[in-house]
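Title: Prediction job returns without error message
Component: structure pipeline
Severity: low
Priority: P3
Assignee: unassigned

Description:
Job completed but the reporter wants confirmation the result is attached to the right record. Sequence as submitted:
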Amino acid sequence: MMKNLLLILLLLTVSSCKQKGILNENDNTTERLEEENPVKERFAKMEAEALKEQYSGIFTEKGDSTKLFQIRPTGISTLPIQQAAEIFLKNLSASQVERTTFTIDDEEWRKWCNVDNGIYDRQGVSLKELTDNQKKNALSLIQESLSAKGLQLSKDIMKTDQTLKELNNGSLDFDEELYFLTIMGKPSSTEPWGWQLDGHHLVINYFILGDQVVMSPVFMGGEPIITTSGKYKGNTIFQDEQNMGLALMQSLEPEHQKEATITKFKTGNNNLAEANKDNLTLNYEGIPVSKFSDEQRQKLIDLIYLYISNIREGHDKVKMREVLEHIDGTWFSWVGDISENAVFYYRIHSPVVLIEFDHQRVVGVPNADDGKPSRNHIHTVVRTPNGNDYGKDLLRQHKERHHHNN
């Protein structure tokens, strides 16, 4: 009798513990998932650490002039961008507007990352959740802000994420429409405002003040670079950025190639100015462009324009004039060899622009990572050093002139 009683009590205890375990499991699903995703946790911690520092910008150890960027008219209207943003916002629901809009100096500007959506949480509304009309308005904002080339490249990068979805058994971490829009400030012809597009391999920060535009930081990348199957078979990106960079390096004299080379050994990923690197200290390396021949200098200018020309027509010329003013203070550096099929990294660094191109290890294509960099995974970064990423220096000047109490 006593044995039976003890057995019943034991079974009740086990059953009770099991039920509590199930309840606790249901209650803490999100927490458990976070614990099971250490990579996501690591990226969140990296961002949190970066945001502890007030923005200052990318500088060399010696620093450059802090008066490189001035508020001045360009004569190129930004009204079409403003109107597109107003239409986009007008057609969102109240809850979508709340999630999408931030103040002009909100740290949302600095909350971006190039990794996939499985390991990074983004702000704003995604293209995927929008109605067809809302999506059309969102794409119109991007279209008005970029050149035709820049818009097409952006769409082609999005396509690579759809290819990764196909290659990874329909994983929800990837999708051609998982790209999130936020608006900072109120669209205006006189007050500063801007927008951000944030997603896997595609991040655009776009600041506007009057008829001036600052488009940086910009991250553009992709994997696979050449799509060989699925919905977007044939989609190909970054061939000019790759081939023109290599052609420039190959055109240098042997002694200048040696001077430009940081190391001949390309064993990993080399980009330095990606997410969470807003306050990077980065010295000039490689060879100064002042040593280039006229032909080599033109090759470099053409390469720079390849990146700058992603911005809308007119403002691309404004930025290039700024670049050319500092062309003799520009440096070119290289990692890797220079054979026809080489994998490599290059950097173009001046007081007013920082460009990086990097062949990366394979990550998203299953069973393809051999531990070495590949031409099938590319990252590029464009920054405005010396304090004007996100238009921060122009914003500071505007506040000093018009908002002394802010």
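Comment from assignee: result matches the submitted record. The chain has twelve helices and twelve strands.
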